[in-house]
């Protein structure tokens, strides 16, 4: 269970961070250090979201295990992609609060 939820969260997070990385790289291509900053920011963001996805995936799988339920593949997709969507929403809400 944990593995499938984590894989969906990993791939959806990779998609989101890849799109953000391409956007940053394109927007900062003329800046001397912009390309390096883009790579560093995307790497740190991706590693942080993957770490969070591991923890929350293990928690969801643990709850399912204790409840004695089996997880359908569609449920794993919903939980994995849902983790990424919630991470994006929380990240944007923190940025707007600092402005």
TrEMBL record:
Chain ranges passing through the membrane: 6-28, 40-64, 76-97
Keywords: Membrane, Transmembrane, Transmembrane helix
Subcellular compartments: Membrane
Topology of this chain in the membrane: Multi-pass membrane protein
PANTHER family membership: SD17342P, TRANSMEMBRANE PROTEIN 170B
Family: Belongs to the TMEM170 family.
Record-given protein name: Transmembrane protein 170B
Organism: Staurois parvus
